[in-house]
Amino acid sequence: MTLATLYPDRARSVGRQSHIQRPRPQLKDIVKNTTMEKRNIIHDGVSIKIFETDDPEKVIIHFTDDITAFNKIKKAVIKDKGLYCNGISCEISRLLQKGGVPTHFIEQISDTEQLCWKSKVIPMEVIVRNVIAGSMAQRLGLEEGIVPKEPVYDLCYKSDILCDPIINDYHAVALGLVSKEELERIYSLTKQVNRILTPVFKEIGITLVDFKIEFGHLSDGRLVMSDDITPDSARFWDIATGDRLDKDRFRKDYGHVGDAYKTVFERLTGMKS
């Protein structure tokens, strides 16, 4: 699946002229006005904060400019990071919904905020690895950049006390996190996410190296992707140069973190920040 398939009326190009010249989309054309009232904060994270609203079924997610690494030992503020991450997250959510993946996303309501359905998140993270990098490379003594014959899927039990240990399918069921049927559905949706996004990013000159997502249940019991995919939670490598366009630039002191996030934002959304 490609951008042309998902958005047949939108022509894009990377480093070349599009056959059809169209004006770039503007943020004002995408952001929806809302009268939703922001109330108590229910999640006070570093990169995102979640607020209740006057509708008990909906929440407002706010993306910040803060960034941390190594269990919050390393900290910084990256100008406009919240804008880039929110824009990337919203565009990816639109792509996934258009491709048939249910998510908690409703609409973008400002440059750093989005309105979402409130969900009960399953304390389990699914990691998709299209290219070997990060913790898998370190854990198994492999070189970064190896492309496995097929994507690798890991599960992590979300526990701050236990530092989010890797678990297997049997653990997930034994811990009561999911049923066998739910786990099968989660794997199916995760594979669908990867099938949609991998060619989309390839088309804009980026390799989707890996990403992690969580799922949850809406009030009516429906299973949805209850997470965002941004350079904070995924690895993006420039196909032409190999440059890292994600949080690794901060972790490894490569510098130009904001520029990397901006690159992903502008290529994916077609907007100039």
Please sum up the structure shown.
The protein is an alpha+beta fold.
What does the main sheet amount to? 6 strands, antiparallel
Q: Tell me the radius of gyration.
A: 18 Å
CATH superfamily: ATP-grasp fold, B domain
Percent of residues in beta strands: 25-35%
Count of all domains: 1
Our count of helices gives 8
Mean pLDDT: 91
CATH architecture: 2-Layer Sandwich
Low-confidence stretches: 11-23
Distance between the termini: 27 Å
Large-scale geometry: globular
Overview of the molecule:
With 273 residues, this protein is α+β, with helices and mostly antiparallel strands. It has eight helices and 13 strands. The radius of gyration is 18 Å and the shape is globular. The relative contact order is 0.17.
List the helices and strands and how they pair.
Layout lengths: L2 H4 L20 H4 L7 E7 L3 E6 L4 E6 L2 E4 L4 E4 L3 H18 L6 E4 L4 E5 L2 E10 L4 H7 L11 E6 L8 E2 L1 H6 L5 H24 L2 E12 L5 E3 L8 E5 L9 H4 L5 H13 L4
Antiparallel strand pairs: 1-2, 2-3, 3-7, 4-5, 6-7, 8-9, 8-11, 9-10, 11-12, 11-13
Helix pairs in contact: 3-8
